[in-house]
Amino acid sequence: MRIGAMLGDISRSLFKRPVTERYPFERRPTPERLRGQLTFEPSKCTGCKICVRDCPADAIEIVVVDKATKRFVMGFQTGRCAYCAQCVVSCNFDAIGMSHERWELAALSQTPFAVTFGRQEDINAMHDQAAARSAAGPAPVAPPAPATA
Ligand code: SF4
Ligand code: SF4
To answer: Whose Cα sits closest to atom 7 in ligand 1?
Structure first.
């Protein structure tokens, strides 16, 4: 580019509005189809775990606290998720969605990347069950069957 053309571009740019946005100081509404953080409705879940099977990133876990009373907890790793929406498509009961409002998921530590969805009493019950299993120790290994001739 010749110096004259460059100076012309510079002087024109001085009087134009910038095309970039002053994020995060100025924010536009996000598009409704933006794929942000997962949402989970335990009341719609059946515990079938098809979402877990189909997730290519191993980013979700479904814990069945009590199937009869529809007590389910979903663990979600925001840092592992590829935001592909496969789990949303795979769920036949509309129990999983993606929020277009919760998409600013960057963090400076690992802790915010592990999200647990569900009613607080079910999350507490899940932790209690895990603690009871851990206190009971590993399941005893059955002795080998005697060899037959
Ligand atoms: S969220 Fe949907 S696909 Fe996943 S376990 Fe529940 S019902 Fe099944
Ligand atoms: S959006 Fe994709 S990567 Fe993320 S949890 Fe669902 S299936 Fe897994």
So the answer is: 45
pLDDT band at residue 139 using 50, 70 and 90 as cut-offs: low
Domains with residue ranges and CATH for the chain: 26-129 (3.30.70.3270)
CA of 13 from ligand 2 middle (Å) equals 43
Cis check for the bond before 140: say yes or no (omega within 30 of 0): no
Taking residue 76's Cβ as centre, other Cβ atoms within 10 Å add up to: 21
DSSP H/E element including 66: strand 60-66
The predicted structure's pLDDT at residue 60:
96
- Which ligand has an atom closest to residue 38 CA? 2
Q: Enumerate residues lining ligand 1, CB below 6 A.
A: 45-51, 62, 90-91, 93, 95-96
Q: pLDDT tens, 85-102? A: 999 999 999 999 999 999
Distant-in-sequence contacts of 24-31, Cβ < 8 A, 24+ apart: 30/100, 30/101, 30/103, 31/100
